[in-house]
Amino acid sequence: MIKTRLFFCLAIILTVYSCRTSTEETVSKGTEYFPTKIGTVHYYQVDTVVYDLFKKEIDTFSSVVREEVVEKFQDATNDTVYRIELSKFSDISAEWEVFRTFERKIIDNYAIEKLDNNTELKMIFPIASYKTKGSSYTWNINMFNHYDPLAVKFTSIFTSFHNGINPYNNCVSVKINKPIIGRVNLTRTEVYAKDIGLVYRFIENTNSLDDSSFLSGSVTTVRLKN
Known about the structure:
By secondary structure, the chain is mainly β. Helix content is 10%, strand content 55%.
């Protein structure tokens, strides 16, 4: 009888541990959330609201941006790097025209992107639910550039998310939130879906330091369409 109870307890412990481990190890290197396959194409709806303090006007801009992973190469440190092109459709040429490129790579447990000579540490792997708790599991998004440290962390892991256009499963959310004295707001939320990559980005960089009655700055929302 005692042996039966011990076996039953051990089976429960192993089952719980197995479930916990499989959840935490869903992502090991992060390629599921940080795609690098050559030829991958995504289309994003980009909406920006600009608060012009001097004119006391609010302008809105919308566009569709095409993102394509076009090339793989070795950089000076012998790391494998993927080059991504961003394009907008031209009514004049009736073609998608490249207006910007950036680089993406995974080094050990770091997911890194470089845009306009600014390198950001997007994620630290492995991804696990315990990393959403407390402040112990933040990282500095500016670790590889000269800007001031800026703390980032996972806010949700392996959850469903609707970006306002489409629903996605197994999503990971990363957030920067740095309000200063309640009058300057720097917020960025990025949501990545498994085997897809970025599906949503929200960036707010506004302040009311010069005029408490009117904001200055911008708010941008990026949503995957396809």
